């Protein structure tokens, strides 16, 4: 009964070999509104079966990017390749079959209240001209996939927010897209429902080999299911990499700020009393990832530099099966060389170390 098939290109053939497994390739994409650049040289790829998180604050350019990806907005310059075809060079008529290769999941569900759940899911196929029996069969398959097989005849008003989003996801999959765009799909949901929706997206990604681009302002969403993350700010990608490496070692202030809610932070009452120049104890932040986060680092530090220091705060997380750690260490300054010695010891073992200030 399962009729899900591997993604193919717009014309039913495999994507051109030149793109390999790339479903999305953006090259120097630019879009301005008046004198304001909304997208200012975006380059990005997403491969078949990959989940890529695109994260940024409000106004960073995320909405414009997603509208350019689905062809609702035209870029001023640059290339936007979907399955090997540059949509910037397609007419509106040529764009129509491509849009069927792209599924969209919205923040506010966008379900039609006067139609049943199965009718909402089947709607894209009805617009496409698929026979009623076939589109309802597809809707039933998708309802089973998203865990709502018993809700086919229900109306949206009878569903919870999480159930509505599951219907939205099923509708986005109706035409068997190669690419799923998730536009803040969990922002309107409570934390428990968010976790269930993210688990569903990951399950769909695994079962169907579907490429997913997550547009979000929530690092926790990226942390939960993405393979890679791109941080967008004022229309530019300022940082990109595997999720665990970006979380372990953010390179930009905006990334560190976005991570602030889910990485260990120095407690405010300690941070507030730090002096930038002197004190009886230097407070160091220590970031570690991979093998360096698994060893007996602080035992080795105590053996190499047998002086008193203390763990002030911190912890270890696991992201993409990689340990990612952040600790705050207090080092006495009665030996003025000791903070630098501790820092050098930790850096030699692949830690990123920063002196945050001095505590009295």
UniProtKB/TrEMBL annotation:
Q: In its UniProt entry, what is this protein called?
A: Cell division ATP-binding protein FtsE
Superkingdom in the source lineage: Bacteria
**Organism of derivation:** Rhizobium tropici
Q: Name one GO molecular function term.
A: ATP hydrolysis activity
Instruction: Report the family membership.
Output: Belongs to the ABC transporter superfamily.
Known role: Part of the ABC transporter FtsEX involved in cellular division. Important for assembly or stability of the septal ring.
Query: Which part of the chain is the ABC transporter domain?
Result: 24-259
One cellular-component annotation, GO: plasma membrane
Keywords from UniProt, A to Z, are: Amino-acid transport, ATP-binding, Cell membrane, Membrane, Nucleotide-binding, Translocase, Transport
- Which PROSITE patterns does the UniProt entry name for this protein? ABC_TRANSPORTER_1, ABC_TRANSPORTER_2
PANTHER family linked: AMINO ACID IMPORT ATP-BINDING PROTEIN (PTHR43166), METHIONINE IMPORT ATP-BINDING PROTEIN METN (PTHR43166:SF30)
Q: Which GO terms describe its biological process?
A: amino acid transport
